[in-house]
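agent> Task received from the user: take the single chain below, predict its 3D structure, and emit structure tokens. No templates, no multimer pairing.
agent> Plan: (1) validate residues, (2) run structure prediction, (3) serialize to tokens, (4) report one or two observations.
agent> Step 1 OK, no nonstandard residues flagged.
tool_call: predict_structure(input=
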Amino acid sequence: MDKIIIEGGTPLTGEVTLSGSKNAALPILSACLLTGGWHTLHNIPALRDIWTIKKILSNLGVVFEEDGQALRVNSDDVNSHVAPYQLVKTMRASILVLGPLLSRLGKAKISLPGGCAIGARPIDFHLKGLSAMGVDISLEHGYVVARADKLRGAAIFFDIPSVTGTENLMMAAVKAEGKTTLNNAAKEPEVVDLANMLNRMGAQIEGAGTDTITITGVNELHPVTHTIIADRIEAGTFLVGAAITKGNVRIKGCRVDDLEAIVEKLVDSGIKIEKQGQDLIAQGNDSIKSVDIKTMPFPGFPTDMQAQFMALMSIADGWSMIRETIFENRFMHVSELRRMGADIEINAGQALVRGKSNLSGAQV
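)
tool_result: status=success, residues=364
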């Protein structure tokens, strides 16, 4: 797609059903490497990152079959331990195959990941934890080369909660010898979804969704059928869309508890949000109040909603302060919002936004 042309000024109305969570689907697809047999996955979103991880897995020997709305995944014949640069460079989450490959084959060679330029996103958390589990790791010509005769359980502490780090080590630990404890682990719903699938495969994982996760290694896993959770970031984006356009939108199939931080800030800004079972109904307001936000790990306000909320605050009444604490370079959208007339100042990891009555269309 070369361009998207948007004609503004029209309230969003109607209803929409959420897609499956990309950030849950990526580790769950990677987890299919852990055992042979046919997995059946429902609610896989149709996104470029999903295509990329499927391509990486295919290169490793994984087979995919479309079955109506489901995706069937078979890892009987994993015949490679190398994830090449040409694919890994496009997506940082490609590192998620490292733990499963070590568990399945005892070796992995993964290109240092690329992907979106929103900060360093170091993989040190992954490598430090794997080293504690007995993995010999070296960096050779832009690749992480890892080997382990036998993975051993270990007590691992994250200096900062890392979602992909927690997921990678959890997958590496499910068939490791003994018990692994992940301290200061990420608590995101996507981590819990992965743990739920792994447990249904035969793993023994306790504490997912808290900051301490305990994994007791097992000898065997088996394939399962699993449904990916709804995408909370997509839900939040539709909520903000209704608020910005003063629309009325029903968002179907939400995991309401996962959206508390987003909903709270939108309600503070004057947006009416009604809960009806697993649906949320958002009614925009003629006047939007300025609200400060600070991005935090779950259950705090998600960094993936920061840009959308900044767009909303750019047409709010008064000043708002937006602090980004997760990634150091996640204000790249500011220059584009300024082209549309937004009044935003950046200083030391925070944005000061002075709301205006409206923005104007621009090429961005």
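agent> Step 4: summary for the user.
Residues 53 and 94 are 7 Å apart (CA to CA).
agent> Done.
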